[in-house]
Design goal:
homotrimer, 458 residues, mainly alpha, Ammonium transporter fold, 3-stranded mixed beta sheet, 17 helices, 65% helix, 2% strand
Chain lengths: 458, 458, 458
């Protein structure tokens, strides 16, 4: 490390201070506001007259655990495809998601479960907090490798708050349906991240281009993320839906949609690939688009065929996006999208919102029977027609895009604050700025690799 | 890539066309035939008078998710032990299983749940489709590295159909019990793959021998597959059994059997290993034989001791098979079995079928009480004696072997079609024929490795 | 391998003989003593008059599977951080845990569920056996790389027996509460391993120091372990608690505690790290301390704030322990703690026991309502005051420390038996002593690396 000037004390203290400040603040807010709900509180639960089998825990906890695995294993390892950024991909995912779980418990709690001056928490708040963490990690994917951990914490602080408000507007004020979050999670997370990345545009990122690729093993680590996201996506979309047929149908639709996006991704990847070869970037990402695209509609009577068609379309659009649109996005719109979240979450999310509006427009009493009450309560109560519900769905998409783009732009300005820990353009996608990094091989492992210094230029 | 002639357009279009054709066909069949069952359909579920807690989803979905993880994470990574075939192992597992889920939904649906001109789907069809995908992946293990993706898709098309018919003959026509699929999944998948590999015998495979081994990290990736298969196997065997004590007992028996196969595998591996050293091939595979061997009998009153004894035997046979029988299989029978599926699925599957017959023969009203109805309904209804049930079990094994060997041989002939994408003998076990492959290390990663051309010789 | 003298036949046969002897003994004991309990036995279950939905399986099996994943995936890969010890970390975890599951089924069965001359097993015994395996793996972490597999089997034999007795004394004789095992699992496992490591102190371990570090990829494998432990820890603590609000609250508290330990670990790691850099050792381990520290108290009315505060404290103590206390432990106390189990399990376990005593002391009828019966039955039945319960909790900690330290010391003496398979001091942390090891790269992979010989010096 000779010749490498030490970071200023301020830079070194930034991350610890932010973590401690944040943890202190949420702890105080938890002490004042957060209480067990009637299913987790010993006194409240035993006061009622119900069987333990009625506890919501048994209906939602297995799905929660699958969602939890997607957020921490899935997103974390999916982003570990970069050759020199695996520690940061997995590690900052861990940090950001941990923070988001606490902070969104508060934000969502104030908006959704604030009664008698207290936020009441249980397995549903755990699922919702994980969903919010998912949106933050989608945005992380857009700026992966170009931001420091302190910047990311500030991004999460802002994004969690806006996520909660947007979700509240859609689900509560507008009566929009979006169980698996095509809008609230995927569209919001993607466009927030893309807007933020636009504001942080780095004209000389070419200097780090040699690190913006995978090596053989890093692609296999990324496939761990892909596969865990893929297998558990049926639980993701079904975790918050109504019990019984609702969860069951949502899981089934998502399962079929993902098989179709996988087939279309393999087909398109080979079709557009050099010499007919498959591209790991497509397989790792676009194959998942089937989960995104049915995020809104999978709880509806989409039909198994509808699920296949939606998944097929999403895989196709997503693969073509990786091949043709991502370069265009950078050259024309100055949006540098490291993980291609526009292709995996952005376009499929918007498609999913449109599909949700379409399926809502087709809702009839005949198709849903008495189940209409649980899927579209406002239609069942004759307070809204199916067409009107569809218009609300479209309006929800519009609102989400506004929140995401304005919010992400504000976030970008915030992250440009000069005292933050942005990496210099020549040291992007590089773990060594933030981590003690061992060598690649046994003989190198005794001493750390040569370490250069982060600038504070943003 | 200078000097490397480009593939003919036909070769390059083969995989995309097959994927698209297949997806188009299943989508049409889904549109015409596949409908939600009464537990996933909003109108049908709410028509009945039941609690949401009664929905089959809550009894089987957690097990389904474990099975799903086994199929995609377990099989995929288990086969990633090869040093240069990780992308294909994980990626083609993904592709084949996605296709098998759709196609077996149709095949199994026509045979098992076709009422009123429609196939009705729910969590049980999801589990059964995953089981069928498991059989396809077992066959994939036999031909791993020696077949192209288009060949594999054709294999899956044929195998899924035969799997469904064989399963129908056994479970429905013959009243054979085989919850965890010692016969229908493991024996069938293994001998189908071995017969197919026999027909595709490559006399000069020696040319690719240097790639038929692991490197340090690829063995650790394979252990991810092993461990996920191992931990979730109790869910695999119990996922389709009768509710209550049936699922509970099946999971418990499988759990004990696996501990015993692990101990015997470690013992035997060190015993036959050079200088007492353990061999990763044994640990990765034979330790799992305990799950295979109780696939038929774990739902029966096998007793915990019986589970230990069965697992111990299976681990022993499997380890010895890897050490002594696999080379013999190639030299004498011209069967090249890349993953040793004969040792992990073939022999333990047959043993499991025999064990199932034995335990069925010992079934008494005393041991099963009123539970006899759920395990052996034909015995409980006095339509069959226990001995007769055992004979039917043995007959089921015979049928399965016939279907597998004849079907696999036909499959081999099909895969020899000259326009398919078989790798040349000097380029087996090599990702670069089918994938864009980055380098192994940072300095190589900027350009792809040298790429040679696949011949179309099969 | 020229020039490498072959091991004596005795050395080579040691591991196989131990495995076979052990498996024979447990099989006999299983045959004589182990029977299905009334929820897994076909006759017994169907004799009663209950719905299948009442079967304990549906309340605990999903949590069991998460615990199972933690034990085999979590612990196994967490210890795979060493550059040349991945096979042993994952493989011996597999072997030890398989053995512990069988053996602790017997030990715990004799102590907890022995009726009518038989041990009765079901999903609760599966969970308890996995817990015991967890304690064994914690101890393994202390001696990782410095012991052979035969030594480890003997350690497990002794430790499982003592674990069962200690647990029996605490939970049954003293009426101590410890659902998630802050005392019975973490404190016991850590101090047993540390005492054992003390007895096996190796003054010249410096000779193997160059292997006592990670490489880039091994740290990512270790993060697989970390993340699976982290996400499933809520299931670990809640798996054995009372149904309903008990499981629900326990999972929720653990979830919050882990988010706080993650934040404090990142803060402290950057604070004490060279130039503000994060250290993977801290992130991989200390971030998990939040799960350990609420092992006793998470089923109590800890409050969400209490969970955050506890997690924060544990992450802080654990990170500082890795930075400052581990070197001190070796230099002053001659305790070589490979994985730092003192920091992850030892100190947070003791803190968790103290926290449990504190929260027990604060238990009131008002806070728990009728739920007091399920959390503190002795207080509810007025057989003990809350203060008295707290004193029993503290006494339980004392007993546990005694059992662990005395037991671990005895274990160390046992493992010093000269005919065992301890590695020489210059070949610690090295897979090649016990495994056939392929090369790191393609060109090396055709032949094994040079292999040297283990001494039998302990």
């Amino acid at each position: 490390m000779a010749g490498s000037p030490r970071r200023a004390a301020g830079g070194r203290l930034l991350l610890p201070l932010l973590c401690l400040l944040f943890q202190g603040a949420t702890a105080i807010l938890f002490a004042v506001f957060v209480r067990y709900d009637h299913e987790t509180d010993a006194a409240l639960w035993h006061w009622g007259n119900h069987s333990n089998a009625d506890n919501e825990f048994y209906f939602r906890y297995p799905s929660f655990q699958d969602v939890h695995a997607m957020v921490f294993v899935g997103f974390g390892f999916l982003m570990a495809f970069l050759q020199r950024y695996g520690f940061s991909s997995v590690g900052f995912t861990f940090l950001l998601a941990a923070l988001a779980l606490q902070w969104s418990t508060l934000v969502q709690g104030f908006l959704h479960s604030f009664h008698d001056s207290h936020i009441h928490v249980g397995v549903e708040s755990m699922i919702n907090a994980d969903f919010c963490a998912g949106a933050v990690l989608i945005s992380f994917g857009a700026v992966l490798g170009k931001t420091g951990p302190a910047q990311l914490l500030l991004m999460a602080l802002l994004e969690v708050a806006l996520f909660g408000i947007n979700e509240f507007v859609l689900l509560t004020l507008l009566g929009v349906k979006d169980a698996g979050g095509s809008m609230t999670i995927h569209t919001f997370g993607a466009y927030f991240g893309l807007a933020l990345s636009r504001v942080l545009y780095r004209p000389q990122l070419e200097k780090s281009k040699h690190r913006l690729s995978s090596v053989y093993h890093s692609d296999l680590f990324a496939m761990i993320g892909t596969i865990f996201l893929w297998i558990f996506w049926p639980s993701f979309n079904s975790a918050p839906t109504t019990l019984g047929d609702g969860q069951h149908r949502t899981a089934l639709n998502t399962y079929y949609s993902l098989t179709a996006s996988t087939l279309s991704t393999f087909a398109l990847s080979a079709l557009v690939g050099g010499d007919g070869r498959l591209d790991m970037v497509h397989i790792q990402n676009a194959a998942l688009a089937g989960g995104v695209v049915v995020g809104t509609s999978s709880e509806m009577m989409l039909t198994p065929f509808g699920a296949l068609a939606a998944g097929f379309l999403a895989g196709t659009v997503s693969t073509l996006g990786y091949k043709f649109f991502t370069p265009f996005l950078e050259s024309k719109f100055k949006v540098q999208d490291t993980c291609g979240v526009h292709n995996l979450h952005g376009m499929p999310g918007v498609l999913g919102a449109l599909l949700g509006a379409l399926v809502a427009a087709l809702a009839t009493h005949e198709a849903y029977g008495d189940g209409l009450q649980s899927v579209f309560p406002l239609i069942a109560e004759v307070r809204r027609s199916a067409t009107s519900q569809a218009v609300y769905q479209l309006f929800g998409l519009f609102i989400t895009l506004m929140f995401a783009i304005v919010g992400g732009s504000l976030g970008g300005l915030l992250l440009k604050l000069p005292f933050l820990d942005a990496p210099p353009e020549s040291k992007c996608y590089e773990d060594q700025l933030y981590w003690e990094v061992p060598g690649e091989h046994e003989d190198e492992a005794q001493g750390p690799l040569r370490v250069e210094e982060p600038d504070t230029q943003a």
